[in-house]
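Example 9 (inverse folding). The structure is encoded as follows.
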């Protein structure tokens, strides 16, 4: 697999400003049909918000989605990849961290894309894709 992450990533993903309310994020995620959204300050990635974050940290705790900001509930322990890294490295990072998506970030922290398990599946060999799914799904 000689391709770079830049060649297979989804460029310019819909990102949400860190100070937007969770209600805004939920609507954007619904409109874009995504379960994960990068959270940014300017163009710099500072977190990731999942539909699960919204459910467990806002809805389940009866917090007001209009007043809670995405900054308050987004995951900040991020695993990222550089656009010039190889698809093999993306596979390794996804498997070792059990994540299905990797934000693609330049050295200065600027978000430039997202590489997802589906992107890898389109490019990787069947065996590698199966191994990746298995490793990500392990408890």
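The amino acid assigned to each position is listed next.
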């Amino acid at each position: 697999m000689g391709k770079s992450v830049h060649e297979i990533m989804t460029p310019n993903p819909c990102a949400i400003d860190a100070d937007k309310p969770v209600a805004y994020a939920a609507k954007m995620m619904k409109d874009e049909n995504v379960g994960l959204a990068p959270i940014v300050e300017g163009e710099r990635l500072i977190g990731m918000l999942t539909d699960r974050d919204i459910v467990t940290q806002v809805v389940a705790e009866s917090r007001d989605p209009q007043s809670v900001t995405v900054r308050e509930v987004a995951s900040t322990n991020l695993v990222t990849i550089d656009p010039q890294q190889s698809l093999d490295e993306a596979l390794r990072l996804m498997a070792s961290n059990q994540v299905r998506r990797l934000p693609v970030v330049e050295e200065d922290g600027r978000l430039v894309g997202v590489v997802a398990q589906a992107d890898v599946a389109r490019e990787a060999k069947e065996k590698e894709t199966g191994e990746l799914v298995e490793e990500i799904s392990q408890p």
